[in-house]
Specification:
The chain is of the alpha+beta class. The chain is 21% helix and 38% strand. It has 8 helices and 24 strands.
Length: 413
């Protein structure tokens, strides 16, 4: 059933000139998401340059409009299939992409990694794949583009496919699909190509339609306490539902104490009698009984969260002043604020070259990515970034200013 409201966020990445812009234009055209007047403009420009229709011009038009202050934004490019809508998250470079994913200004749930079939794996292919792996994205479709440049050869396709699989394994990516395509001519993008009869897999759009949304609203409840007020003799806890939903009288857990509690009432401004609250809502609640509550506690539907004073994670150090292990920091995740320090740096990377700079170093420099162990002064409550994003990303502060962003990929115990 088509959902008019929901749009699956996808990221399209790949080495420069491997066809990302052309693919985006082709997806918009093949799904009737490109206004006729824009297509006419692109066709006219292509003819003037004595070229066939160049769908990469779609992105040029969007960039031009954005630079002129018009509302179209390449970071919010939509198209739709019979199944659902999609939004393309377009970040111009790997550093911007990483920062956006960590800070939450964009949240991709699937990725298209595009590789030129003739040129093969290049530097930016590696960098972007590394970031996809670091973020733990599980739904990744690899598109071997420009299949026409290798004369639609099944043998060459299989050779490159094997090379891609081998490389992606090193960055912890198990691609869901690897498809041969030609974005410029539309081969195997929206409809199967007659020029590759040896390929019996899906088209790009069919592959995308198999991907599942994260559905945070169906996850167990996570309700971080933002503040506590006393109003007319009632202790009202306010916050935002970051996952799942909340029902009056429901039995829940107060974390990190793991104490069983239940909701006496749900409070909304100028509204009475509320019995439930949904994902994304900011509300107030009252608990049954007399419980000591404070900002930073989490009301949860189960005990699947990690509750620990040790957190292993990937971070990007964004401050020009280097970090020395043991230096005091402040860990901030949702409403939790806990003094901490980086106790151990397992290894650090240069995201521009994908090289391991050093193993077990004692410092992290600006723009470096590191796998670290953070020691907290007291227990915090977190979840995997790919399970409940808001509970799985955090910021580290030093002297009151953000110096690093990080994500939690799994159980740190």
């Amino acid at each position: 059933m088509f959902d008019e409201e929901y749009a699956l966020p996808i990221i399209i990445v790949g080495h420069v000139d491997h066809g990302k812009s052309t693919l985006i234009g082709r997806l918009l055209y093949d799904t009737d998401s490109l206004p006729p007047e824009r297509y006419s403009e692109i066709k006219k420009t292509s003819e003037m340059l004595d070229k066939r229709v160049e769908f990469a011009f779609v992105m040029d038009c969007l960039e031009e409009e954005r630079s002129r202050g018009i509302t179209i934004d390449t970071t919010q490019t939509f198209f739709k299939t019979k199944k659902r809508r999609y939004v393309i998250i377009d970040a111009p470079g790997h550093k911007e992409f990483l920062k956006n994913m960590i800070t939450g200004s964009s949240q991709a749930e699937a990725a298209l990694l595009i590789v030129d079939s003739y040129e093969g794996i290049r530097d930016q292919t590696k960098r972007h794949a590394y970031i996809l792996g670091m973020l733990g994205l599980k739904q990744v479709c690899v598109l071997l583009n420009k299949i026409d440049l290798i004369q639609y050869s099944e043998e060459k396709f299989n050779e490159l496919k094997a090379e891609v699989v081998k490389f992606l394994k090193t960055v912890h990516i198990d691609p869901t699909f690897i498809l041969p395509i030609s974005a410029i001519s539309g081969e195997n993008v929206a409809v199967p190509s007659e020029r590759i009869p040896w390929f019996h897999g899906l088209t790009v759009l069919e592959a995308l339609d198999t991907f599942e949304p994260l559905k945070v609203e169906k996850k167990p409840l996570r309700f971080p306490f933002q503040d506590v007020y006393k109003v007319d003799g009632k202790k009202i806890i306010v916050g935002r539902v970051e996952a799942g939903h909340l029902d009056k009288e429901e039995g829940l857990f107060l974390l990190p104490e793991k104490k069983k509690v239940s909701v006496k009432s749900i409070e909304r401004f100028l509204t009475s009698g509320s019995t439930s609250a949904e994902y994304g809502e900011s509300i107030g609640i009252c608990l049954k009984g007399n419980h000591r509550v404070r900002r930073g506690q989490i009301l949860a539907g189960d005990l699947s969260s990690l509750i620990s004073d040790q957190i292993q994670s990937n971070i990007i150090w964004m401050d020009p002043v280097p970090y020395q292990t043991g230096t005091p920091l402040l860990f901030r995740c949702v409403t939790q604020e806990v003094p901490c320090q980086i106790e151990k740096i397992y290894k650090k990377f240069d995201p521009a070259s994908l090289e391991i700079i050093e193993e077990e170093p004692s410092t992290i420099m600006g723009a470096q990515v590191a796998n670290v162990l953070i020691r907290l002064d007291r227990e915090a409550v977190v979840d995997s970034f790919n399970t409940i994003p808001e509970m799985g990303r955090f910021v580290l502060e030093r002297d009151g200013r953000p110096v690093a962003g990080g994500i939690i990929l799994g159980d740190s115990r």
